[in-house]
Amino acid sequence: MEERIYWLGWQYLLPGSGKRIWSLVEYFGSVKAAWEADAKDLSGAPGAGAEWSAGLSRRKAGLDLDSLVAKLESLGITFICHNESGYPEKLRSIFDPPPVIFMRGCLKSADNLAVAVVGARKPSPYGQLVAEKLAKDLAAVGITVVSGMARGIDTFAHKGALAGCGRTIAVLGCGPDVVYPRENKKIMERIMDNGAVVSEFPPGALPEAWHFPARNRIISGLSLGTVVVEAGERSGALITADFALEQGRDVMAVPGNVVNPLSRGPHRLIKQGARLVEGAGDILDELGMDKLFPLPDSIEEGAVKMSKEEETLYRLLSLEPVSLDELIRQSGLVPQKAIAALMYLEIKGLTRQHPGKSYTRTGRNMV
């Protein structure tokens, strides 16, 4: 039986526990010897007790490795072992890489040039726009965008990369066949067509809370650097940033409104020395790639024709939401004309409407 099948078996038995797998293989001398060890032998391994070893042996005996391979094939899921050529080089070099990763879609050599964009699960409209814009601009010049497909910043990062006609990788805290959150089913399908969905958790694994910190080390491990867009003081995005630092990768952060609690995480990182990011150019510069991947000139406001009413309203907008009533008051326009002008601005891709009839710029012209 091929060695890779034994690696697969261990990944099924101990998902998210790469350190334990590496320890067992080192103790027994090979992955095959570790797999063939009985409960008594396992109990002698570092950190293993009799009860744990007995339970592991029972679970191991219940696994048919050939059936696991057949199941993966039926689900359209591939698996790559750490010692195989398709395994991402940057991930292989971290302290505790997963011995096996499961994948839907495909990884390419171009994905070695990747940047993680992560942040809050309930971001402000400002955070949504910035994450989407950064990812779109990075993808447009050939940088792969990595994130975790969670609600919020992760989702907008993936959307931005897809809008930029580029590649994106989603790292899951569940099995690669599990859609979480469920509303991301369509975007997950698009990611598989334009990148990859990867996980160290086997098919069917549910998104348990402890999976996500483990998942975060893979997000940063796949990337040259990590950009944090809005995060609370105890955000999972900051865990990803900590992993990035431990892995010797760059950490960057987008500043925000000082009264917004979601600015505390990025601002703390900036105080600690993280690169302040105002646009994709800052990310490329930090990574020393600005000359290799020059950004196209940003679209000027004048490139899109606007009526007098549209221009008046556009200049009142920013990346922070402004209510319809406030726009009517500041512009002096009658409600019917203001609503019509805002509708045309939205059609032209210059504004976005949010719940409660508030509006922001799309970030399209953001430097």
UniProtKB/TrEMBL annotation:
Superkingdom classification of source: Bacteria
One of the protein's GO biological processes: DNA-mediated transformation
InterPro entries: DprA, DprA_WH, DrpA_SLOG, WH-like_DNA-bd_sf
One of the Pfam families matching this protein, by short name: DNA_processg_A
Positions of the DprA winged helix domain: 307-357
The Smf/DprA SLOG domain, residue ranges: 79-287
Gene3D superfamilies linked: 3.40.50.450, Winged helix-like DNA-binding domain superfamily/Winged helix DNA-binding domain
Listed NCBIfam families: dprA
The family this protein is said to belong to: Belongs to the DprA/Smf family.
Name this polypeptide is given: DNA-processing protein DprA
Organism, as annotated: Pelotomaculum isophthalicicum JI
